[in-house]
Amino acid sequence: MSNEKEKQGVSRRDFLKTTGIATGTLIGGGIIGGLVGYNANKGSGKNEKTGETQQGQNHEINVGLQHFKTMKSFNILSQATERILPEDDLGPGAIGLGVPYFIDNQLAGAYGMNAKEYMQGPFEDGAVTQGYQSRLTRAQIFDQGIAKLEEEAQSRFKKGFEELEPDQMDEILTAFQKGEVKMEAVTSMFFFTLLRQATLEGAYSDPIYNGNRNMEGWKMKGFPGHQYSYAKDIESKEFIEYKPQSISSMTHK
Amino acid sequence: MATTLDKVDVLTVGVGWTGGIVAAECAKSGLKVRGLERGEARGTEDYSMVHDEFRYAIRYELFQNLSRETITFRNNRQMNALPMRMMGSFLLGEGLGGAGTHWNGQNWRFLPYDFEIKSQTEKKYGKDKIGKDFLLQDWGITYDELEPYFTKFEYTAGISGEDTNPFWGKRSKPFPTPPMKKTPILEKFEKATTNLGYHPFMMPSANLSEPYENPDGSTIAACQYCGFCERFGCEYGAKSSAEITVVPTALETGNYDIRYHSNVVEVLKKGNKVTGVRFYDTVTGEEFIQPADVVVLTSYVLNNAKLLMVSNIGEQYDPDTGRGTLGKNYCYQILPGATGFFDDEQFNTYMGAGALGMTIDDFNGDSFDHSKLDFIHGASLSLTQPGLRPIAFNPVPPDTPAWGAEFKKASVHYYTRALSIGGQGASMPYKENYMSLDSTYKDAYGVPLLRLTYNFTDQDRALHKYLSERSAEIMKEMGANTIAPANPLTDYDIVPYQTTHNTGGTVMGNDPAISVVNTWLQHWDAENLFVVGAGNFAHNSGYNPTGTVGALAYRCAEGIIKYSKTGGSLV
Ligand SMILES: Cc1cc2nc3c(=O)[nH]c(=O)nc-3n(C[C@H](O)[C@H](O)[C@H](O)COP(=O)(O)OP(=O)(O)OC[C@H]3O[C@@H](n4cnc5c(N)ncnc54)[C@H](O)[C@@H]3O)c2cc1C
Ligand code: SF4
């Protein structure tokens, strides 16, 4: 049973009133620090000239490619992610959610460069239970994987991956998932695992990362994003639908 | 050339719960204490952008940077150990507060049975219950002896709970704060387990039910059930951790300081005493010697063992001969459970707190008869409401594809319609499961990585199967339409996250032939060296470790204070 009216989460002011944390008895530090920072930054996020807000309507000029060099690679990636999370009556699929941009942008940064992973050799394949042992970074794995998707499409169907029918794409993706496609210094199974995981990340991470466009991923699932407190509602027997909020609300508003 | 710093009375390597507790107690007693922490200073004010699943829970914002140091792993001695290149099975802490910054706060005392597991098991089930390849041993201390320290830790942390569990040890004092709120999800579990004749109770929690001031004067705020708890720091200061309790307590004495960005690489030993440690400043790259009268290793299970190994202190365990104690009895946690899918009910699963849950201990420890079972011990079975987040939580009934249209439909639908019962299952020490130094791979300072040799055993598999069956029965009683018991245990896999409940390797006991430290956590081979953490556990119980780790840290601190007056062995 869902609570008919969409619920607005606890506002900062309500929060301070109801929790007693700010009244000086027990400060604990953080909420005060957090809220002060939040107050100090009152810019509306609205573009003075166009009146458009930064999130939503004006999305297109704020996203672009940081890693892929050709639209072709990007389109292959896009189609593959859309097969993993397709559009349906519940809501947008990976493309509509901006997932391909999210992945592209991630590949250009610490994730793509394996900045926080142990990358010293010697490299050996190892057992499945020993996990990632490739000498390649994630960016290299995606580049190679996408080239291999295209190669598979050409050899199986004599067409580019982008032009395939959905079930033909699925056939190829399934072959990757099962590790049946030969790749260099990494298995196709591992590439598929990365691709699937990155697709979910792009669909459901905070919109500040350029996926989950307009919080549509969260809206499908009923996840409210960043809310201050559920203390008042945690005992509710009703299912509650909050208006979702991005963590960017801490910096703009 | 290393620069030698001024000597301090007590030095801790790492500043998480254990380092913080030792620092607070020793500094209060007048000793000059320094903490060397390789991570950064941080506190509640740094957690205001924390409601970001991707950054904190998926990209591991607060955890150890593996590019500098990791461990190597193999399932058995026949395999080549390879580095854990990406974080997976467990999430190592780094920075002030250590892993305690981003824990759930499920806070347990191990059972009286745990501390005497060998003698009690033999008495009740005979000498050969699980076979001699399992290195069961008593801990050299009883629950009753440890009880005051459990209480002390719980009062420092302000633990919220209710003393209604018939199976756990006697408590000398009530919980410092009442249990957390009982939500409809928990009530469902309570009703089902009560119907089945079990004994549900609210899980003891370090996410506090109400504001609390601890005996040292630190304040902890009330939990807001924000749903960003495990893997996140608490932006309200409502989750007990070292940086909001024992660390400020220690600093207020004026007898304590912390040097950050200080990576310890060696404990220096001369004769039967240690003289200090050698470390690198991770910012400048400079090498330093920090002399100390007492050195305390509080750098978590893995690095405590590693530092002893690279410093040649104690004898490395050898599985061929059974000789040596360092690295032996490495255990983990066995995770039985069941997920239930509800077609007609929707739950506020996105709300919650790390330690919001109800538990039964009817199948934990020796609270049920094992004579006809092929395993010992068991698991606490809990239904928690930790706040489920959308990247990590995509539950689908068995036989649903892992991607595509059907996956999307099911994972979106069941995100708020699936509940899980999870067990923290006990893990018994096995002669082939141990820690040693890797011979190939090195950390950023050229020091060998720690090597884990670990696999699940038949004992683990039997325990897991039995407890997963019990979990599925409870789920059925809760009215789930589809029930998926946990997949049978096969081989230990370092990839998926399981728990950060690594234990053993620097085991405590009253016999130096089978333990690394005595029951004051004082090293048998160096009287001014103390080693504290879950590494002291001779096996892992059917609970999360930190309540017991906290108790051991308080006992260790008392030992250090005593030692600093009398010298010599404390036993
Ligand atoms: C996600 C997560 C959830 C958890 N949930 C629970 C729970 O609900 N209940 C429970 O009981 N337990 C839980 N735990 C486990 C709990 O966090 C740990 O048991 C506890 O924090 C360990 O404290 P410690 O002081 O032994 O080590 P840590 O907190 O890990 O502190 C060790 C410190 O030493 C530093 N260090 C390491 N090596 C060096 C070196 N060479 N030089 C200098 N400094 C060094 C590290 O940077 C770190 O800060 C959880 C852990 C994780 C990761
Ligand atoms: S759930 Fe409670 S204790 Fe955990 S981070 Fe949120 S407010 Fe803090």
Automatic annotation (TrEMBL), chain A:
<dbReference type="InterPro" id="IPR019546">
    <property type="entry name" value="TAT_signal_bac_arc"/>
</dbReference>
<keyword id="KW-0812">Transmembrane</keyword>
<dbReference type="InterPro" id="IPR006311">
    <property type="entry name" value="TAT_signal"/>
</dbReference>
<dbReference type="Pfam" id="PF13618">
    <property type="entry name" value="Gluconate_2-dh3"/>
</dbReference>
<keyword id="KW-0472">Membrane</keyword>
<feature type="transmembrane region" description="Helical">
    <location>
        <begin position="21"/>
        <end position="40"/>
    </location>
</feature>
<keyword id="KW-1133">Transmembrane helix</keyword>
<protein>
    <submittedName>
        <fullName>Gluconate 2-dehydrogenase subunit 3 family protein</fullName>
    </submittedName>
</protein>
<dbReference type="InterPro" id="IPR027056">
    <property type="entry name" value="Gluconate_2DH_su3"/>
</dbReference>
Automatic annotation (TrEMBL), chain B:
<dbReference type="Pfam" id="PF05199">
    <property type="entry name" value="GMC_oxred_C"/>
</dbReference>
<feature type="domain" description="Glucose-methanol-choline oxidoreductase N-terminal">
    <location>
        <begin position="221"/>
        <end position="329"/>
    </location>
</feature>
<keyword id="KW-0274">FAD</keyword>
<dbReference type="GO" id="GO:0016614">
    <property type="term" value="F:oxidoreductase activity, acting on CH-OH group of donors"/>
</dbReference>
<dbReference type="InterPro" id="IPR000172">
    <property type="entry name" value="GMC_OxRdtase_N"/>
</dbReference>
<protein>
    <submittedName>
        <fullName>GMC family oxidoreductase</fullName>
    </submittedName>
</protein>
<dbReference type="GO" id="GO:0050660">
    <property type="term" value="F:flavin adenine dinucleotide binding"/>
</dbReference>
<dbReference type="InterPro" id="IPR007867">
    <property type="entry name" value="GMC_OxRtase_C"/>
</dbReference>
<feature type="domain" description="Glucose-methanol-choline oxidoreductase C-terminal">
    <location>
        <begin position="429"/>
        <end position="553"/>
    </location>
</feature>
<comment type="similarity">
    <text>Belongs to the GMC oxidoreductase family.</text>
</comment>
<dbReference type="InterPro" id="IPR036188">
    <property type="entry name" value="FAD/NAD-bd_sf"/>
</dbReference>
<keyword id="KW-0285">Flavoprotein</keyword>
<dbReference type="Pfam" id="PF00732">
    <property type="entry name" value="GMC_oxred_N"/>
</dbReference>
<keyword id="KW-0560">Oxidoreductase</keyword>
